[in-house]
Design goal:
Blueprint (H helix, E strand, L loop, with lengths): L4 H33 L4 H32 L2 H24 L2
Helix pairs in contact: 1-2, 2-3
């Protein structure tokens, strides 16, 4: 039984999003737990920041996986649209990081 390529892609992307959210939640929970035990530890900040970074990076990773899968499936319209979305996300991250300084 052959799975439809787009249904397979949706399943992969769903697994990616669930994994990202679970990893993020675990990091945030661990950071909060250690913060409540000892508020002054540097480890708390690393865990909390790591959880937030994973949470923010998950949708970007989803778009990157989508580009690769659409290229593999030779769905050129979706490749172009997804690359545009990835470019916008990249520009947003660059602008946000450059405005921090």
């Amino acid at each position: 039984m052959r799975v439809e390529p787009l249904a397979d892609l949706e399943q992969k992307l769903g697994q990616l999003l669930v994994t990202g959210v679970i990893v993020s939640a675990l990091l945030l929970a661990a950071g909060l737990f250690f913060f409540l035990l000892n508020p002054g530890m540097a480890r708390n900040g690393w865990l909390l920041n790591g959880g937030l970074i994973v949470l923010m990076a998950t949708p970007i990773l989803r778009v990157m996986v989508s580009v690769a899968e659409y290229v593999r499936l030779r769905q050129w319209f979706f490749v172009v649209v997804t690359v545009i979305v990835l470019a916008e996300l990249t520009l947003t991250v660059v602008v946000a990081l450059s405005s921090r300084s």
